[in-house]
Specification:
Part of the cohesin complex which is composed of a heterodimer between a SMC1 protein (SMC1A or SMC1B) and SMC3, which are attached via their hinge domain, and RAD21 which link them at their heads, and one STAG protein. By secondary structure, the protein is mostly helical. 61% of the residues lie in helices and 0% in strands. Strand 1 and strand 2 form a beta hairpin.
Length: 1202
């Protein structure tokens, strides 16, 4: 029997199998009588099996016709058709075996499955449900669709013949109990989809039974004259048949549930468990009368404790489908009371997808009834609106909105719409403010707004109501907002304006750049227009009302940065602009707070946009203000210098000295010649030594900005030659001034001088002439060796310190977590500033050795920065980078010798720490040995020279003082190419080692010579390179014990035959003795390859970190679960084998060239700090953009980048 596919797909399949078909025909002709059978099965049936499997694999377009053809074949010969279906399931499992007709007739299912298991390809773990690739992409959906269509087409006759379904269910039940994962996975999916299809059939039968019962009752209730007895008998017969079919379907479902589901919902494979839970959710949703009870719900509740996130996720999505239907809530009351606490705890799941779905499920529970969730349960979800993970925060925001904001005052029909303070949103906005204050996370208002934006944008964009709450008097009987509530409302209002104008989440919660749709862009433009029209009028009164409150003014003055400034002209709002400028001027004159003055400067910068017609008006106001400020600054500065001691406590002086620095950050003040006055002030501070730190810091910043603005003019080509000469002199004089301030007693002053100095050295380095700026070559400045040494000394003394030693945290705030995080940010900024100098060759790359040697000790704090620096330096010069790495190890080795002496124990923590650092350095070279060939060879040669540098104090018979360094150097042997170890190439490391060895050294076997023996072993040609790093991790005591064991004969037979050339001065008679002495008499045993799944995960990570091999462990059985297809059926739910190999995965990640690395910082209240520590520190765009003007912005925002 061949399926008759009367469609296009049939032709395409024949075309694909054309050659194969011709070959089969030829073979049949030659083979005679027996050629028509394959494995005892008719060939045409084999052709049909292939076609059935191919159709499912290619897609569902011909599914209906394929099923119809199969049904026709079943009606003609049900044994042949069932055999085809059985082979279809076998083939879908990836098995190459074929069930013959004889096997089908004479063998039990268990025997057939055992035979198929023997013919399974165990070399590969892939099967159709797991194979990747475009042709298998839709296989699972097509496979499920085939089963569904098959049952749907057979639901009126064939499934009740007590043959077809019994055979299929029996086969799938047996396969689902197999040890072969492919059989178990495929058959479980088929059985669950078959069950779902039967549930649909049972549901239809139930509906038909109810309809028949109603018809029967209606007919029976008629009067005798109108009652049709024939119709009653017909309806009774129909109801009886439906009941029999219903009972038969229920028996089938019970067989599948008890034979497959009950065993496989706790399978060792997470995918199989997920399939079971997903389908039982479908059954309870489709046929709630039969399945929505505690007998079935308990399986979902139990599985919510599964170890795998994908299974927990399926539990939650299944429950969401049930709670969404409010009619089912009554049946879920017992389940909710029993498993509610578990659902609430899953909102903090380590898998973010699970946490999101748990919050959504609680939102559905909240919609069904308010009585289930306690206030404590709700509060555990409320705080998640501040989560750094945006989907979690949005889900929590929806929950919060449903709980607090779903009830609003109804508006009367026909009544005018209430606005402002009388708006229905007024109470909701107050509720938002109250929640924000009670959450005690005031610095994260932007997070709260972003969480509520998708569900409550209409409420959050009611700026008219917010303005009314701030400006208008309260209504009779209404309680006015307190000062604290007004401050919170202004902050929330600013965040809503920013969110509407920028259309992206706040810092730390971004998911990457997303292209907005046309609808989103239109909404953005409309929002900017509306907010500008509202706040252009309301902002001056708001500033006038809160002019003396620094916090409120700071937030209000940020609003113009998001305005559409064209509205001032098109909306004829110039008078409101004049009022705004007056208010800003008054605020500048009244306030001394740096934050307020900075935001005033930024507001002027935002309004002074040459693209808009208001530019001239704003520019005049700004120039007038700057003239007054500079004049006042010069007068007070002169008085300040004359009467220095009396002016220290004078706040107006401090404020006026502060103003130029603030204005310089956003405005060009080069026309006022501030360099001379500030430089004079700085020089006075050096001479007196007791000037207030804030005045010095502001003067340094102001002078820095003046130089950058002058450089911006020079880069544009608008400056004269004299201006270039003046700028060169000013820059060099200022660098010398900053260098002098590096020795200041005040830490904040030193840090500011260091940061500015690093910036200037980078900006005025040789790279400033690139990009067509050759005319700036006279400005290039190269730092002297003394300055480089001073910068390095500053880094070592102020960055690589313990947290408790940080002197920046004073006044008893050492235990404050926020202070520690801030101090760490400052130190990271300082380190990143210096590392940029290394990367861009401003300082000698060798100075990086003092940085690299801190990699392990300060890994949590600076590991990502140091690793990125190593990566960038390797891209610049691989050989010099390798020299720097080995130099850092040599420095650590010398420090250890000065501390422990030359007789140290090689098992000491100091020596093991250096070896571990060398291992980490080795992993950073990656897997491509060709690219790093020269660098690795040079590294070994430098290490060998260092090891033999200092001769022994015991005379010629003693080992060199640094010989133990070879034990550290052996960590890099695995990175050498085999031909570079012993061949006669120019990179021959072994030959280079022999230059430093004497005849007596080759004969030594004492413990003190073990580093040389171990290192020479690692250079053996054809040796197992990968085991050398592990072998070198043994302690010296263990090594000495093993060295006394008898070597198996022939262990070095292959290597002993190798000959090498000796120096010309040595006699040939000693060649053989010399050659024999080079062979190590003892080969350290290689550790067995063991499975990390057989040891404690924590211990595994520790062992991997220390490089110590495990002893007396059972070798891994590769026939066990996770490596092959054969698996134990009765295993409990366990985690994947790879989950216990975290230590080795960390080692593997060390060898990958990532841009950044996640690091573990001290615990913080919120993840926002972590996200701010991961920018690209070494983006060249942050150094030199197309114009130096872009650089000014980078310099100004430095404190916000790290």
């Amino acid at each position: 029997m061949i399926i008759n596919l009367n469609n296009v797909l049939w032709s395409s399949i024949l075309l694909k199998g054309g050659k194969k078909g011709k070959k089969a025909a030829g073979e049949k002709g030659k083979g005679g009588k027996g050629a028509g059978r394959i494995n005892g099965h008719h060939q045409e049936n084999g052709m049909e099996n292939m076609m059935l499997f191919e159709v499912v694999k290619l897609g569902r377009s011909a599914m209906q016709s394929v099923v119809d053809d199969w049904i026709e074949s079943y009606k003609h010969d049900r044994d042949v058709a069932l055999l085809d279906l059985i082979n279809f399931f076998i083939q879908c499992s990836g098995c190459k075996g074929v069930v013959s007709g004889e096997m089908f007739r004479n063998m039990q299912n268990s025997e057939i499955i055992r035979r198929m298991t023997e013919e399974f390809d165990e070399d590969s773990g892939d099967y159709p449900l797991t194979i990747a690739g475009p042709q298998w992409k839709k296989f699972k959906s097509s496979f499920c669709e085939f089963i569904s269509v098959l049952v749907r087409q057979c639901q009126y006759s064939i499934i009740y013949d007590e043959y077809m379904m019994d055979t299929v269910i029996s086969l799938l039940t047996g396969l689902s109990d197999s040890q072969v994962r492919a059989f178990r996975h495929t058959s479980t999916l088929a059985a669950m989809k078959l069950m779902t299809a039967l549930v649909n059939v049972a549901l239809n039968l139930s509906i038909n039974m109810d309809n028949t019962q109603r018809q029967y009752e209606a007919e029976r209730n008629k009067i005798m004259a109108k009652r049709a007895n024939d119709r009653l008998e017909l309806l009774l017969q129909k109801r009886k048949e439906l009941q029999e079919n219903q009972d038969e379907i229920e028996n089938m479902m019970n067989a599948i549930f008890k034979g497959v589901f009950v065993h496989r919902y706790r399978d060792a494979i997470a995918e199989i468990r997920a399939i079971c839970i997903e389908e039982i959710g479908v059954w309870m949703k489709l046929y709630s009368d039969a399945f929505l009870n505690d007998s079935y719900l308990k399986y979902v509740g139990w599985t919510m404790h599964d170890k795998q996130g994908e299974v927990r996720l399926k539990c939650l999505t299944a429950l969401q489908g049930l709670y969404y239907n409010r009619e089912l809530n009554a049946r879920l009351e017992l389940f909710t009371s029993r498993f509610k606490d578990r659902i609430v705890s899953m909102t903090l799941d380590k898998e973010y997808d699970v946490a999101v779905q748990a919050i959504k499920l609680l939102t559905l529970v909240l919609n069904s009834t308010d009585e289930v969730l306690t206030p404590e349960d709700c509060e555990s979800v409320y705080h998640l609106v501040y989560s750094a993970h945006r989907p979690v925060a949005i889900a929590a925001g929806e929950f919060l909105f449903k709980k607090l904001f779903s009830q609003r005052e109804p508006e009367e029909e026909g009544a005018p719409k209430r606005r402002g303070r009388q708006s229905p949103n007024a109470n909701l906005i107050k509720t938002t403010v109250f929640f924000f204050l009670e959450s005690e996370l005031h610095e994260h208002a932007a997070y709260l707004v972003d969480s509520l934006w998708e569900c409550g944008a209409e409420l959050l964009k009611d700026w008219e109501c917010m303005i009314s709450l701030l400006l208008d008097d309260p209504l009779p009987g209404e309680e006015a907002l307190t000062d604290r509530q007004e401050t919170a409302l202004i902050e929330i209002m600013l965040c809503t304006v920013r969110q509407a104008a920028e259309c992206h989440p706040p810092i730390g919660r971004g998911t990457g750049k997303r292209v907005m749709t046309a609808k989103e862009r239109k909404t953005q433009l409309d929002d900017k227009t509306r907010m500008t029209e509202l706040f252009a009028v309301a902002l001056p009164p708001l500033l006038a009302k809160y002019a003396v409150d620094s916090e409120k003014v700071t937030n209000l003055l940020q609003l113009p940065q998001y305005f559409d400034l064209e509205i001032y002209t098109t909306g004829r709002l110039e008078k409101h602009l004049e009022s705004l400028l007056r208010q800003i001027r008054e605020i500048v004159e009244k306030h001394t707070d740096t934050e307020v003055l900075e935001v005033c400067s930024k507001t002027y910068h935002a309004l002074c946009n040459e693209e808009f017609t208001i530019f001239n008006r704003v520019d005049i106001a700004r120039s007038q203000l700057l003239d007054e400020l500079v004049d006042k600054f010069n007068r007070l500065l002169e008085d300040f210098l004359q009467e220095l001691e009396q002016s220290f406590a004078c706040d107006p002086v401090h404020m006026c000295l502060n103003l130029p620095q603030i204005c310089c950050s956003a405005h060009d003040l080069s026309g006022w010649d501030l360099f001379t006055s500030n430089f004079k002030l700085l020089n006075t501070g050096i001479e007196n030594g007791d000037m207030p730190e804030q005045i010095v810091i502001h003067s340094l910043q102001c002078t820095h900005y003046v130089i950058l603005w002058n450089l911006a003019k020079s880069s544009e080509g608008s400056s004269r030659k004299d201006d270039m000469v003046t700028l060169r002199k000013q820059m060099r004089a200022f660098c010398m001034m900053c260098q002098r301030y590096l020795t200041n007693v005040n830490t904040a002053v030193k840090e500011q001088a260091f940061t500015i100095l690093c910036d200037l050295l980078l900006i005025f380095s040789h790279q400033m002439v690139s990009g067509g700026r050759e005319h700036l070559e006279p400005l290039v400045y190269s730092s002297e060796d003394s300055l480089q040494a001073e910068l390095l000394s500053f880094i070592l003394n102020h960055v690589f310190i313990d947290q408790d030693d940080d002197t920046n945290s004073t006044d008893g705030q050492q235990d404050d977590e926020a202070v520690k995080i801030e101090a760490l940010h400052k130190r990271r900024n300082l380190l990143a500033a210096y590392c940029k100098l290394i990367i861009y060759c401003v300082v000698d790359m060798k100075t990086g050795a003092d940085i690299f040697k801190q990699y392990m000790r300060y890994y949590n704090d600076y590991g990502d920065i140091i690793k990125e620096t190593m990566s960038k330096t390797r891209q610049i010069d691989k050989i010099q980078c390798a020299k720097t790495l080995i130099l850092s190890l040599q420095q650590l080795f010398n420090e250890m010798l000065s501390e422990l002496g030359h007789g140290f124990d090689r098992s000491s923590s100091s020596f093991c720490g250096i070896k571990e650092l060398a291992r980490r350095f080795s992993l950073t070279f990656g897997l491509d040995q060709v690219k790093t060939r020269d660098a690795i060879a040079m590294l070994h040669k430098d290490g060998i020279e260092f090891a033999f540098k200092d001769p022994s104090t015991q005379g010629e018979g003693g080992p060199p003082l640094n010989l133990a360094f070879l034990d550290i150097l052996s960590e890099f042997s695995s990175k050498l190419m085999k031909q570079d170890k012993r061949t006669s190439s120019g990179r021959n490391v072994h030959m280079y080692l022999e230059r430093f060895m004497t005849f007596q050294m080759a004969l030594q076997r004492e413990d003190c010579w073990l580093p040389l023996i171990s290192y020479r072993n690692s250079l053996q040609a054809g040796g197992d390179d990968d085991t050398m790093s592990v072998m070198s991790g043994y302690s010296s005591r263990g090594s000495s014990v093993r060295s006394k064991k008898i070597k198996p004969p022939g262990a070095t037979a292959g290597t002993s035959a190798a000959k090498r050339k000796l120096p010309e001065e040595e006699s040939s008679s000693s060649s053989e003795v010399w050659q024999q002495s080079l062979q190590t008499p003892v080969m350290l045993p290689s550790p067995h390859l063991t499975s990390t799944a057989m040891r404690d995960p924590k211990r595994a990570r520790e062992d991997s970190f220390m490089g110590t091999p495990q002893h007396h462990q059972t070798p891994m059985d590769y026939n066990r679960r996770g490596t092959g297809l054969m698996e134990e059926d009765e295993e409990p739910i366990v985690e994947d084998v790879m989950m216990s190999s975290e230590g080795r995965m960390d080692d593997l990640n060390e060898g990958m060239d990532f841009d950044t690395m996640d690091i573990d910082l001290p615990p913080s209240k919120n993840r926002r700090e972590r996200s701010e520590l991961k920018p690209d520190y070494f983006d060249p765009a942050s150094i030199m953009d197309e114009s130096v003007r872009g650089l000014l912005v980078c310099s100004h925002t430095r404190s916000h980048r790290f």
